[in-house]
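Input record (one chain):
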Amino acid sequence: MTERPHGPSSTAQPGGHERNERPPDPPRELVDERDVCRRFTSESVAWLARVSGRGAAGTGAYGLGMIEAIHFYHASEPATPRFEALLPAGRLAGLFEEELIALLRDARAIPPPGDAPARAEVRRSRRRSD
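The corresponding structure, as predicted from the sequence alone:
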């Protein structure tokens, strides 16, 4: 019996590749020229949801996944983000309104700029919830 290397993806091989072939390159950011802005209503308040950033997350040779940071704004104040959530890349445009409401409900609050005590409290609450 041969000893296998340790690690979560050390023995995982991508489908259709021989063991000696070079693995595929990790995913790259998808360029989407459309700026997706979704408008919806939750508890009689009109909201906007927009992509505020993109990146990749994960571990291992094949564990990277593209994600997007979604910021939620009151429709009456479209320049001030109130909440933030993460989604797999490209999903915002296809979410149903009920899914947007659930995403908003689970999103983290973004303290107003310059509000240092509120920012510190958000950091403390993140540590408690993790």
